[in-house]
What does this fold into?
Amino acid sequence: MNSLIAGNQSAFIKGRNLVDGVVIVNEVVDLARRFGKECLIFKVDFEKAYDSVEWVFLEYMLKRTIKAILRGFELASSLRVNFWKSCLMGVNVREDFMETTCNSLNCIRGSIPFKYLGLPVGANPHRMSTWEPLISSLHKKLNSWNHKHISFGGSVKESHPNPKGVSMGGVNGGRKLCWIKWRVVCQQKENGRLGVRGIKAVNLSLLMKWRWRLLNSEEVGLWKEVVSRSLGNGASTCFWSDLWIGDLLVCVKFPRLFSLSLQKEVKVRELVSVEGESYNWTFTWWRRLFLWEEDRVSQLLTSLTNVKLSNEEDTWRWMLDAEGSFSVKSAYNSLLKEIVTGTNLSLFEAKFFNNIWDSPASSKVVAFSWQLLHDRVPTKENLLLCGVLPQNSDGYCVWCGDICESSSHLFLHCKVALVVWYEIFKWLGVVIVVPPNLSIFFDCLSEAANSKKSKKGFCLV
It folds into this structure.
């Protein structure tokens, strides 16, 4: 061996490393520099199989092969490749190879990033410049809709696919005043809101659709909060860390047993042996169990009594849907509770807010009634609170000039408003004592009807 392996080399000798050679070379170079000595370094590279390849010929054959593949595709599918409009791009490819390949294929030389199906490919997704063309395209489409001539009620109806359509106030195209918080607007109509879809929740719901597709493939992730395993043969379901029985993971429900188990990654099928109609579960622990721990094992076995295996493969189940299949709607409704938070309405408030949207009145009137019940109309009192009117301005009612102009006063308690309401009561043939606020007044009107048809008419009023 001494004749084959020299004693001063770094490889094939016990206790030495290839990096030792690098250290020695660095020391030699540093020594020559410090003392000004001449030093000639010859870096030897042994010839390998690839060194004998004629690369020019190989690249030429690769180009011909690419063109032959495209030609074969044309003959098989009757779809001809337009080389003049096609584009060739490379990643970490030599410039001369790209030039000669483009010339051989008679195509355009492209660069990365590029657009594919209208979306950027190869660009940095964290940069704003990546998405500016897409945002500009959306702005052009949205601006083509002349929503300036549509009432607030109409824009609410149109805003379900397009949240930008919700707008309130503004004079001559000027800056609009935000009367209601966006998180309030995004809540469902059953909660007295507008039911406009929140952009963040919709985006996450659509992204979850892609995650669900990945989840049902062989390479899966794990969403323990919203998915569970639908047990088939148990071959791919982890006994301890998959949600396959009950509402909790087995490792969470029985943490002590999980810590003692030697089978933490075991599948359900590997733990059970079937004898006729009986199932025998076999667990392995790293020590003998105490009495109270054996009681926990008994509880675990009791929870496994109704487990039945089949010949089908294990699948994922979407817990937010009764049928177990994923839907963007169920994901959105779940995310809405987490992302768009707000105060819940009482049963009394929810009742008349639901009646508002059932009214046969025009959307403009219904939307204004919704704003009025939320006290989000531009009365002098609200304009003063928003800082639109100066603090020293007159905030008295525009009709009577006696009291501050609030929503309840302007539409209910003002002398002019009372005259109008008494005439309406006389026309309807009802006697109603004017209540202190608009919410109770609306409920009184809807309850004053003695039939379904008349109730519809009262809601219209």
Observations:
- Confidence is low (pLDDT under 50) at residues 159-167, 218-224.
- The chain is about 45% helix and 5% strand.
